[in-house]
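queue> pop job 88
queue> type: inverse folding (structure -> sequence)
queue> payload:
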């Protein structure tokens, strides 16, 4: 049996599509209801919070995982990258209230932005990204509804994932800078890659060939 960790929420439909296209059984997975562990044929699927998928794979709870590279970049889990599925495309971006956009001419303006208050749930990725931009920031860690922070004036901007842009627009925010292309990636546990059991190898090959 091979265990694969999958993210709950808006990415799950794309994950089902990836597995189905690769020829893996997904009938029960499509009808998971509140079940967190679904066994189908020789596969066991685990349904986890997206941010937990990298750690579940790293700690050996699953041999494979599918998760956005926004999440793997934020985590410090040791994983082997298997493939970029190209599905679930979105971007990491800095966004700010529309009326404040003039402030953010990032190139050459880093000093003026020193002390910028950034709301995000991606603390590590934000630290790295703003460091690369040469901007010293203060981070307000939130766990969701990040857009609230600039709307309420408790942060100057947000650093978050943007898919359709609808949430930004609805809250009077606009993209200042896109910093990372994001999509769903297949990742594996290091030891699973080293051991490379037949079912693991066959599954990895099937997924790669179907992309
Ligand atoms: C994410 C993200 C944005 C939104 C972007 O939140 O944090 O709020 O999606 O998507 P859009 O560009 O299509 O509007 P999510 O829905 O995962 O919920 P959260 O606010 O609880 O993190």
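queue> result:
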């Amino acid at each position: 049996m091979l265990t694969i960790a999958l993210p709950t929420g808006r990415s799950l439909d794309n994950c089902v599509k990836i597995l189905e296209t690769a020829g893996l059984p997904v009938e029960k997975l499509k009808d998971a209801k509140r079940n967190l562990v679904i066994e189908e044929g020789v596969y066991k699927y685990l349904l986890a919070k997206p941010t937990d998928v990298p750690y579940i794979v790293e700690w050996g709870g699953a041999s494979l995982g599918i998760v956005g590279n926004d999440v793997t970049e934020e985590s410090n889990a040791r994983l082997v990258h298997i493939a970029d599925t190209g599905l679930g495309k979105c971007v990491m971006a800095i966004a700010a209230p529309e009326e404040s956009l003039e402030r953010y001419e990032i190139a050459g303006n880093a000093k003026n932005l020193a002390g910028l208050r950034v709301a995000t749930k991606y603390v590590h990725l934000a630290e790295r990204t703003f460091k690369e931009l040469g901007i010293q920031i203060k981070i307000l860690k939130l766990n969701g509804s990040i857009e609230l922070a600039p709307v309420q004036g408790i942060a100057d901007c947000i650093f978050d994932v943007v898919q359709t842009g609808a949430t930004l627009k609805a809250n009077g925010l606009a993209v200042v800078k896109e910093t990372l292309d994001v999509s769903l990636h297949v990742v594996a546990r290091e030891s699973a890659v080293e051991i490379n059991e037949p079912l693991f190898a066959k599954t990895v090959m099937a997924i790669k060939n179907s992309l």
